[in-house]
Amino acid sequence: MARVLIIDDDLLVCEMLSNIIQSMGHSVTCSHRLKNGLREAEGKIFDLVLLDVGLPDGNGLDAIPRIQEAEPAPPIIIITATGDRNGAELAIRKGAWDYIEKPASVHDMTLPIMRALQYRHERKVESPAAPKVLSLDGIVGNCPKMKSCFELVAQASNSDINVLITGETGTGKELFASAIHNNGLRAKKPFVVVDCSALPETLVESILFGHDKGAFTGAEKTREGLIKQADGGTLFLDEVGELPLTIQKAFLRVLQEHRFRPVGKSTEIASDFRLIAATNRNLQEMVQEGTFRSDFLFRLRSLVIELPPLRDRVEDIGDIAKHYVAKLCDRYGIGMKGFSPNFVGSLCAYGWPGNVRELLHALERAIAAAFHEPTLFPQHLPEHIRIDLVKHSIKPTNSSRKKTDTVSDLPRAFPSFRDHRDNTDLAYFTELISLTKGNMKEACRISGLSRSRLYDLLKHHRIVYSAPTQS
């Protein structure tokens, strides 16, 4: 028997859906407010959620990420009386199972519910093989959007399907491509990166396909192309949107046959490669503008992984900072830096237009500025970040202030209580270990914690310690 949660303020719709679900032999819980529905979803395990959009106290689409935080996340079917195409697209992008417009017949409602419950049941059935543990070296994140990306990495790793990774500059597209390769069947074979934006227009064909000796002026010897170098492994086309149209056309046959002719050669050669592409551009818009081939795009996007910008996963910033500060301190051979209580808060308040890449550069700059100091403060961050934070902290003057406050008047981000508490604890324990020089007995005495509890907290905050050597 499955458990189904209905979040809808229409009593007649709730009654109809309850009758359908109970006739299948399943149990039903109904909530007529979004707040109450989320409380139910967070407190119990459900196998399916039927979610209205226009609720008295909020938009159901905005609640999808919170419902998906459950482990395992239940399928979500959106039911709405105000359906529109943009809303349907948004629902699917947020992870909804289906999108149904009211009024709907009993038949139209029954089939999606049956299929969603069947999907849920099959996912719950234990596989005889142990679940695969992904290797995600360098990728840090635990928010729902990142978890969805990790699930797609796992799917891609189980096959040779073409993958298109999209996202803004600095979101880690090459890291994800590498993760797919390293977790797949070709992990021990080459991972060949092609930066399409850096390919000289006159040599693109030669670099990709290779050339024979004397094929053109300057071709003094036969050279193997990057496609052949990826034989048996993975070919990663970074910034694929920059690939010239003529090469896109040539690539179509290569993807189909895995055979091509090097420049100047009369015979074809083969290369058994797996293709992963990435871009920060909207390829669909480029197709409409005539600057990207639609047939090439269809081949690339067999599976699409859309990486979220850092501003959409603020809750991950603290973990990313801890992870990379630890790596940087180890690289430079210095002790682990603690964070002042407002350091991560400042990181969370900044917009990060350059995403994770910009954050890593800022952390490296902060460590350089505080090289011999044990704690990182906002003052150690690059100047342009501190200026931006100060600007956004200043309230508008009376002449520029609107009559009523809006969301745009509020700070762009503020750390949650949990993040603030974690950062405060991190600073405390870092200073404690520094003060006691790793003497656990003394650290327990000062902190008032048991040895086992102290060990657990040090492990949680990834604080490296070493006991003093005996003379």
Tags for this model:
alpha/beta, 18 strands, 19 helices, 44% helix, single chain, Rossmann fold, five-stranded parallel β-sheet, Helicase, Ruva Protein, domain 3, 471 residues, globular, 3 domains
Structure description:
- The protein has helices at residues 11-23, 34-43, 60-67, 85-94, 106-124, 144-157, 173-182, 204-209, 226-229, 245-257, 283-289, 294-300, 317-332, 343-349, 355-369, 383-393, 417-436, 440-447, 451-460; strands at residues 3-7, 27-31, 48-52, 54-55, 58-59, 76-80, 98-101, 163-166, 191-195, 210-211, 223-224, 234-238, 259-260, 269-270, 274-279, 303-306, 338-339, 375-376.
- Helices cover 44% and strands 14% of the residues.
- A hairpin with an 8-residue loop joins β13 and β14 (269-270).
- It is of the alpha/beta class.
- It has three domains: 3-124, Rossmann fold (3-Layer(aba) Sandwich); 144-306, Rossmann fold (3-Layer(aba) Sandwich); 312-395 and 409-460, Helicase, Ruva Protein, domain 3.
- The strands form six sheets. The chain has a five-stranded parallel β-sheet with strand order 2-1-3-6-7, sandwiched between helices.
- It is built from 19 helices and 18 strands.
- It is globular.
